[in-house]
Amino acid sequence: MYSVIIPTFNRCALLKQAIDSVLLQQVRQIEIIVVDDGSTDDTALMLAEKYPKVRYFYQENKGPGAARNKGILQSKGDYIALLDSDDIWLENKINHEMKLFQQFPEAEMLAGNASGFLEGELRRADIFSQRKINFPQKKPRFFEWSLPIMKLGPVCNTSTMTFKRATLEKMGSTIFDESLRFDEDWDLEFRLFAQFKALLYPEVNCHVHIFNDQTRLFYSAQGQEKTNEEWRNIWQQQILIINRYLNKLYWDMNIAKGFELRIEQLGQLLKDAGG
Fold it and tell me: Any idea where the Glycosyltransferase 2-like domain is (predicted)?
């Protein structure tokens, strides 16, 4: 079975599109789990009326990491995929990933490419290219710590991640750090990439959407700059996350020096911003 975990918060209309994009995958053994992170809209009613087979769980607002953890805990599939409620999957995503797992049996998780939309307008047609992740001969590649993007933020978009159940079970009961309200996916990547083989593939399998409605913090609307407070919060949390893992034996000396340099850069940015 293939399980899809969809965390949501006041995304009733958009949630329909996310669920429909999963149902269009034409996969028989699939379960869709929606974890409602304290919505005040008609999410529960809409799901009961339109998608009675979707497994629905409600919790008080704790953030996307906690919602994903709850969904993973309730899932039954041998493969577990994540999808945010304002994103949509493209056709044949699941079938393509099942073929990749067969082709690369050593892969313990997969992450595909995505396009990025801001307020409905295309911002990035190819997120991996924007992050300077290249695919020689357009073939999949395993993650390497030397990828420059890892020092700056998440390598993968959460809505493109698919895991083997055994991989997540090895990580324990708390997959995402529930104390983090943003960059929780980046924190996960440090632990994930240190322990398991992660296969990245170049095909776009997801449209990622960002809206200027405060449901995804620290993303400014198109044409608007982030405030100094937003930048300070981002930099402070990035320092916290990198420091968590600097003393771990995840990388060689040269790679560790790169992360140490990044902390120095972030510290200077905070100093210059008065933080």
Answer: 3-116
